[in-house]
Design goal:
With 503 residues, the protein is α/β, with parallel strands linked by helices. It contains 19 helices and seven strands.
Length: 503
Amino acid sequence: MADEPAGPPALADLPGARGQVRGVTETLRTGLHSVWLLPDRLVATGQADELYLRALSGTRRHIDVPPTGDAELPPPAEGAASHPSWDAGYGPDTDQLPYLDQYDDGFDLGWEGDGYAPAIPAPRSGGSGTPLPQRDLAARIAKELSAPADDVAGWLTFPDDGTPPPVIGIRAWAEPDGGPVRGAGIEGLHRSLSAAVRAAGLPPGERPRLFVVARLRDLPEGLPDELHQDSGATAVHWWWDALGRLDVSTTVASCLAAARTAGQDGDSSGERVRRQLTAETVVEICGPDLELARGLALGWDGQQRTLDAALRRCLAAGPPVTGGTAEAPARMGARRRPGTDVREAWSGGAIAAWEGRLRPHPGTWYPVGPAADLTGDARARLAALIAQAQQRVVLPWIEEARQRLAVRSLSHLKRPVESVVEDYIERPALHLRDRPERAFLEIQVGELLHAHRQGAVALPGHEAQLLRLLVKVRNILSHRSVLHDATLKEFRDELSRSDLRTS
């Protein structure tokens, strides 16, 4: 039985994402705080959690600070008589236990009536059975460390147990607002911990570190740039130009794996061209948006006449892009972070860095949903992307077919090969001037067709038909035009028939 095709790889397993995770982990290992800024879409899809946990697990000792909804009650003040994790009476699960007044099971525990008797707590009112949320970040960290909540920075700088300080992992999007400025608690913790480390003069290997993963709006405005200037204490990473063509191609190929038959008997050149064109067109249109690429790869049959409807459906099914326009800004920013004028658009998914260039998301310029009008600008943009994909796929196939035709044409020459090279090859290679047969093999499809029409080469009918089609397809692509379905089908069929003739 054939193995089931593997599903799409996880985001953290893709080469570009692994590179970012590796960079974040390395900065933490060198003793620096690390702030990792991700676009909103990664948080909405849950992929931000995946990246966060992958990077945090790469550190030797770490603490994953629970979000406010998962945290237990804060510890009482120092000197309180109760257990650190108890609120009163029975402990954090009191609401789940029955209250039994004057219960006597008949056993004598040695208590005398006028002696000490245990205090029986009064029943709680309004108990919900769930722990109260702990909104204070320092208190939640203190609970995880079993440290005093009023001096987390001091305890991290000089831990009581003498162990190396851990990495404190924080999901900023899960933190409460906590005041008029979102992220103020994270900023305050970072400043207090950095001040404590500087005062203690700790070397990099002994410093406690914060690992904060955030959206742009989860931190105070201007804080990322301020931290970037303090490169000796904090490294700021951006999800910027993180994914490349290899990442998206890997994802699309895995989505199409169920329908693939590559490597099996009977797999023709035409079928391979069709699959490659489908995958490359999806990659070129979707760019670094993996979710859109997955949806289009699975929801499009590879024909241009159905592409419009499939792309509209996929755009409508995904989260809307915000904060950008259809036009890419003139300034990209630094290689590793977006410029200030594109950060809102980057955060909302409207723009991304793709292969070293700014690239607006298709949702900013293509109609979303079946009722929206297709403008001339959107049609032209889509055609340009399709043409680029066709060039990447089809031109190598043209070159391979040209080489085979050139070899076969040597046996159909009607004139000396030296004469054909001199008359029909525009710029023969200088190093092949004394090797006319080898020089003839470099003849281009247009030159070979001209020689055939002039009678210098008498190709059989089927070979001449393939040659004329190669010239036609090459001319269309050289003018950045799009090969339509009928022309592509003819091209694939001719390649398949050529394979059969040579097999």
